[in-house]
Amino acid sequence: MSAPPLRYLVLLAVVIVTVAVVVAAADTPAAGLVAMLMLAAVSAVTLTAASIARARRRRLRLGRQFGLAAAIAIGGTLLTVGAFVLVMFLSPHDALLISLVAVFNGVLIVVAGQTAVGDVVDNVRRLRDGLAQVGEGRRDVRVDDGGSDEVAELGAAANVMIERLADEERARAGLIAAVSHDLRTPIASLRLLADALADEDIVAPHERQTYLDRMAVHIGALGALIDDLFELTRLEAGETRWAMERVQLGMLVGDTVDAMRADADAKGVVICCKIDGALAAAQANPEKLQRVLFNLVQNAIRHTPSDGSVTVLAEMADGRVHVEVADTGEGIPPAARSQVFEPFFQAGSRAARGGGGAGLGLAVSRAIIEAHGGAIWLEDAPRGTRVRFSLLAA
């Protein structure tokens, strides 16, 4: 059994004391004391019955719970009248009239309560039926009674949950389609290459190494895709435990730019870095952070034409460490800016992926940065693309 909230007990005590004072003023102090003791005893009995009913309420429908509460209230009233008849020497005639009035008031309370809040039960049933339909697979269900009470808030929360569930299922379907697409192409190519190698009439002995090299490229792409999918799944599930340390971001940015310089030179892209002299160390995992930098710089080089440039900037801003990778490429269409960090999304047609990306680089980068307690976003740029992320300073 559970006791009523303290504020209600205080309110009940104030009412009992007030009644006792009024009786004492109208009759005698002894009568006031007797009235207070009787009301306290009746309150204890009634609240005990209410606590027992509350402990067993899960076995009853809401309508029966309301009816039981009304019955307990009427019983408490009749018990009070009976106590006053026995102790205060009321006449049986007066007691009968008071009892009849108490029963009438109890029934009136039930009818008035049903009229005022009876639709609560209907709203709860509607919510239950709607969630049952969601459990059966429907996602077009909406629960809305147009109110503003707690039941309406529960319905609104259920609607948000249903919409989020529908969005996640659409995203999952899109992810499966994208994975299927990105797996089908290299697998089909590998099958053709393997078939060609098996047929000595198609591939001459001196060409076999060329075919093997092509197969190695496709196998590497498949391995990278599977690794990215595995890591993205673990990151989004929160199954990551990294050793965090003070990372000198200036050195990490410099090493990344130096490592990517050969790729930039091969494409005719100028790459440089700018390090703020007041740059603080970041609290991060250096390997994971360098992977983010590699992803961002690689994307920037891939989408920058010859004679373009890529700039990596590291600076302090708002007490946090900021890193930005900016390029002078084609940029990202405004309609696509909100989706660039989603898995497998790429601005433009999928056929334009010739550069080799599967659309997971930015998604993995976002998951890593957010796992560090940081944020990553697109900055406005008059030309090209600017991707910026921030981390806590060590």
H/E series: HHHHHHHEHEEHEEHEE
Sequence of strands across the biggest β-sheet: 2-4-5-7-6
**Which residues form runs of ≥5 with pLDDT under 50?**
348-356
Total beta strands: 7
Q: Specify the biggest β-sheet.
A: 5 strands, mixed
**How many DSSP helices?**
10
- Overall body shape: elongated
The fraction of residues in strands falls at 5-15%
* Mean pLDDT over the full residue set: 79
Tally of individual domains: 3
What is the straight-line distance between the termini?
52 Å
How is the CATH topology of the largest domain named?
Heat Shock Protein 90
Class derived from helix and strand content = alpha+beta
Q: What's the topology here?
A:
Elements: H1 6-26, H2 29-55, H3 62-88, H4 92-117, H5 119-135, H6 150-198, H7 208-236, E1 245-247, H8 249-267, E2 270-275, E3 282-284, H9 286-302, E4 309-317, E5 320-327, H10 361-371, E6 375-379, E7 385-392
Parallel strand pairs: 2-4
Antiparallel strand pairs: 1-3, 4-5, 5-7, 6-7
